[in-house]
Amino acid sequence: MEKAIVTDNEQTIFANEEFQVVAFKLGQEEYAVEILYVQDINRLLNITRIPRSDRHIEGVINLRGNIIPIVNLHTKFNLQASGNDEDKRIIVFQYDELKVGILVDEVSEVLKIKKDEVEPTSKVYGSIEAEHIKGIAKFEGRLLILLDLLKIFE
Amino acid sequence: MKMDMSQYLDIFLEESKEHLGNLNQKLLDLEKNSGDMSALNEIFRAAHTLKGMSSTMGFEDLADLTHHMEDVLVDFKEGVLQVDPISTDAIFKCFDRIQTIIEQIETGGNGEIDNSDLIYILQSIKSGTTNSLNTEMINCEVVDDSVSDVLTENAEPTFQFSDYDLTVLREANTRGFKVLNLRIEVAPDSLMKSVRAFMVFKAIEEDSEIIKSNPSAQELEEGKFDNYFDILIISKTDSQSIIKRLESISEIKVQSLTEIQVESLTVAREPVKTEAASISEADNLVGNKKVGKIKQTVRVDIDRLDSLMNLVGELVMHKGRLEQIGATEKITELNETIEQIDRISGDLQSVVMKVRMVPIEQVFNRFPRMVRDLSKDLNKEIDFLMEGKETELDRTVIDEIGDPLIHLLRNAIDHGIELPSERVKSGKPAKGTLMLRARHEGNNVYIEVEDDGAGINPERIIQKAVDKGLIGEREAEGFSREEAIELLFAPGFSTADQVTDVSGRGVGLDVVKNKIEALNGEINVDSKLGTGTKFKIKLPLTLAIIQALMISVRNEIYAIPLSSVDETTIITEADIKMVQNQEVIMLRGNVLPLYRLGKLLEVPDEAANDDMYVVVVRRADKQIGLVVDSLIGQQEIVIKSLGKLLAGVPGIAGAIVAGDGNVRLILDIATLF
After folding, report:
1. Distance CA B111, CA B5 (A)
2. For a FRET experiment, which of B107, B379, B620, B660 has its CA 20 to 30 Å from that of B650?
3. What is the value of ipTM here, to two decimals?
4. pLDDT (tens digit, 9 = 90+) per residue, B168-209?
5. Domains and CATH numbers, chain A
6. In a domain, B650, yes or no
7. Residues of B in contact with A62 (CB under 8 A)
């Protein structure tokens, strides 16, 4: 028998169902976001600074004629940057009308994660508040923090 | 079979709104000049189309209301009824109701609204009993029961007879049947009018025969009649027992019963046809006048136009890149081709811009009605004049400009123009004048709202601002007239002594100003105490493509809309003077305050050069000098929005993608300082 669980969007899915995530590094920790929302992964393009904007807004880039704002999660969550500049990437997400990119230190890989291997969280991990996290995913002994980007961009 | 009409809903809504605007406009014309047949014809046609459209779409209540409205309009057209203030008011009310229904449909409703109150009023007008309806009743839309008795008193029997009818009646008469004309009234609040009518028919058919009914039997069956109907019967039974039998049916009353002398009847001359003819004649009249003007049009989704505009924008951008290559490579053939592309893309751009342009008429058309209603409410007499309705503006601007204009007009009517008695006292004509003008000037459109009212009293503004704590008392003493008027636009300011529900709720001109500035526009006030006030709005023709001056500060490049740039000049550090802790230069004898763009935008590093460029920009009526490192040149830019996440960053109006693929920001002079 498969155990049914109810997710946030009130869809019933079966516990051993898999979903794909893009795993990446911010500082020393590994994070992941659902691949459904990922539109593009790019090398660092020329980022134009936006004067007088919030501190965590890195700037804007031109992605095939579209202006995309880039959020710096390092500044937002007080994380140390790590790795080589060569490895740094911009991941662009699209949620309905909202298009936004984040700066990451390294994109590791695309992983398949089972729903029942995601643990809901109420604790605060590092400096990221619990409400910005969907859960902690376990994958072959690695721990990935599943980010709720929509909440972060609000 | 029920067809799926949802795909036509958008078109229906849009066209209905157009017709409604037209109706309001023409009825105003008709109100001014009750003999204006072309206006009446136009109203009739629009109402007729509206009726057809709404019944096709299955909005029965709307169709029904317009049907009754049409009935009254036909009578106006044929001169049966006179256009008087009561009926115009009633028809205006109908327009309002139609608007409500359309809005309800637009927000996903089914358009079902009980219109019996208005229909009742329309019927009273049609039957010529409006003297018992007073304006108040129309306004508060409450139907008085007592009116219904008067309703049909002097109504004539409405039967028309064909040859065949007459033969039947004569035949019946010779056999000793009486021909009776009955007017049956059904209680206005009856829920089952058609059932009542059916019961009447049954009761009569017990011993008599129904020859004719008005409305027709089928219409009665469908309940499509007002609160009464006429029937013509032949019977041997005496009148009293017929009445008694009929009145035993609940909710039924016999209004009148008359015996008709068959000999006196004559054949009517095909009334239906003549009516139809007169309509088509009118159609032709209007049609003929318009033939020269009619152009073929296509309705296009605004999104498609937007994406077309985007593509043209990309094209213009890459053209810019080509020009750069052409300039460095110096190949004659390439440059010739680039020139061609330049010309074509320029044409393409202006065509696309024109496609997006709509006459400001669309916005203006709803104002006469609003002014009329408002001035009536406030007991003011106002002549409302509009100029330049044909002035065209970008669709995006049109959508946004309506509300600010309404605000200004309301202000003018409420606070500006005085009551007739006050006007006469100060030696002005009792009727105030309110002007709304639009005109093109270069790459801008100017809209002016001008009244000949009391004007703005600067002292009162200052007093008010001090009372509200917007400025200090000492500060107030130094205020000039212009500065005082500028206070009008301060948030939380409202001068009306009394708060009316028209204007003066504290949300005021600051909202108007913000909106205009969001459209890259400007607003100025010019007022003379005692003679009137003029609000002048300046708007760019389009928001999508503008001319800009590209400048650089350190290694950052920005675009300044050329519409805010007055001139540029070179200065050296030695030219800068300090006045009250503010850097200034003397520019042709005037003191020009200077702001260093690098500091304003927190650009890292210091400027190295001694030579500096000053871009003189204009904000409202003031000139300000922006110190930049170098001027790059003038360029046509395609404005792109920064998106939701970055909306509202002060000093930044948007972004462009430069020829080299980098993003450059457009400065917003209005919010930069």
Report:
1. 14
2. B660
3. 0.82
4. 777 777 777 888 888 888 877 777 777 778 788 888 887 888
5. 4-153 (2.40.50.180)
6. yes
7. 657, 661-663
